[in-house]
């Protein structure tokens, strides 16, 4: 009963904290709310008319929604780059940022699930994924494995920070014996969620563009570059607009993680390009379409070459120690790296897998306004959830939110 009383107090104090703030904070929350409402309106049109209002067809059946899902799985997995040094290796420099990283993972996973629902056409078909009720097809289906690992990782990233914050709210230290086993498990689980997602694509024999042994490792490399890059940008905003102080050395250590992952990502990209173009086969047509166009179809050329340019530029900047230690330059590099990987891992990975089709037909894909509206609404939902989680966590960690006995 006592713990329930403390929980009720925590909920009450959290609601009080997230409804108060500066003018900039309220404008930010209003902007996110407006974007969510626009997304809901676009989604209502999709529910009424079906997926025909999107740019997807029977030839390109995965588009903007699954592109964002794939990318956000990596953002969620990247929280492990803070969890492992903090909880496993006892690196205190990461301790300030780890709860923020786990909050980001929770937001990313919720967005992942929202994008899956949007791509399925509507929530009414979700019952198919419920074990014992729908056709779950476990363990044969890679999709069911993906459902299990994503929801399991979401559970870990909710319960571990909640336990720590719940103890801190009461003025007590969290017991390592309680949360460290879960933290260690989350390290392996983070790798699993991205590998399983990669296996989901690799297992489709009719899509040779995805039949690449490097797909799984490259998923991890790009995730451990884009995710921590986003964490750096978020930490920069938090330490600018809140009382939660993040030291420079914390950001610089995370920057090292981003640098190494970005370099590995570029090396793997070069390896893939060599394999596709040095001795091309009929199965290289998707890569040709992506990078050079095919039969006059060039819809993805501006996207992929922009992505590669941003990735290379960001990696070069991060590689030089002097540039990386300049925080303004670091933030710029992280921003363009995040955008570059978002494009490359979205449009540059998902769409070309369907073009050309099994019979050689080229049907290009571009998202419609409805898709873009729904996508922006889901991103706004994720940002709103993260803002709420971060404001509560910061309040507890700075001592502003305390349990009053």
From TrEMBL:
Transmembrane spans: 27-46, 66-85, 97-118, 147-166, 178-201, 221-242, 254-274, 300-320, 329-355, 375-396
Membrane topology, as annotated: Multi-pass membrane protein
Keyword Transit peptide: no
Subcellular location as annotated: Cell membrane
Keyword line: Cell membrane, Membrane, Transmembrane, Transmembrane helix
Signal peptide: none
Protein family according to the UniProt entry: Belongs to the NrfD family.
Protein name as it appears in the record: Polysulfide reductase NrfD
Protein's organism: Tenacibaculum tangerinum
């Amino acid at each position: 009963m006592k713990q329930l009383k403390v929980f009720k107090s925590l909920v009450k104090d959290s609601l009080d904290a997230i409804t108060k703030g500066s003018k900039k904070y309220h404008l930010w929350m209003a902007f996110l709310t407006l974007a969510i409402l626009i997304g809901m309106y676009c989604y209502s049109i999709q529910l009424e008319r079906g997926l025909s209002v999107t740019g997807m067809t029977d030839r390109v059946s995965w588009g903007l929604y699954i592109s964002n899902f794939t990318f956000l799985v990596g953002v969620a997995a990247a929280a492990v780059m803070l969890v492992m040094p903090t909880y496993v290796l006892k690196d205190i420099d990461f301790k300030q940022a780890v709860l923020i990283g786990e909050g980001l993972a929770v937001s990313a996973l919720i967005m992942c699930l929202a994008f899956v629902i949007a791509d399925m056409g509507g929530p009414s078909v979700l019952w198919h994924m419920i074990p014992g009720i729908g056709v779950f097809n476990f363990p044969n289906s890679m999709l069911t494995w993906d459902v299990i690992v994503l929801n399991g990782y979401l559970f870990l990233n909710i319960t571990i920070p909640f336990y720590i914050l719940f103890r801190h709210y009461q003025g007590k230290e969290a017991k390592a014996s309680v949360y460290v086993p879960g933290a260690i498990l989350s390290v392996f689980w983070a790798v699993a969620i991205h590998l399983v997602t990669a296996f989901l694509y690799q297992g489709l024999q009719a899509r040779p563009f995805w039949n690449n042994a490097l797909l799984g490792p490259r998923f991890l490399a790009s995730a451990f570059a884009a995710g921590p890059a986003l964490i750096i940008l978020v930490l920069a905003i938090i330490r600018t607009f809140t009382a939660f102080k993040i030291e420079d050395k914390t950001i610089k250590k995370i920057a090292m993680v981003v640098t190494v992952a970005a370099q590995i990502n570029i090396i793997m990209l070069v390896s893939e390009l060599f394999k596709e173009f040095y001795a091309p086969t009929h199965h290289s047509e998707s890569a040709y379409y992506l990078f050079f166009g095919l039969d006059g179809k060039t819809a993805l050329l501006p996207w992929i070459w922009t992505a590669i340019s941003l990735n290379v530029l960001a990696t070069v900047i991060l590689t030089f120690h002097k540039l990386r230690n300049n925080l303004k330059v670091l933030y710029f590099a992280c921003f363009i790296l995040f955008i570059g990987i978002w494009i490359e891992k979205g449009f540059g990975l998902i769409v070309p897998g369907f073009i050309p089709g099994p019979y050689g037909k080229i049907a290009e894909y571009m998202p419609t306004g409805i898709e873009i509206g729904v996508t922006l609404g889901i991103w706004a939902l994720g940002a709103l959830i993260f803002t709420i989680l971060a404001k509560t966590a910061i309040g507890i960690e700075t001592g502003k939110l305390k349990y009053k006995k």
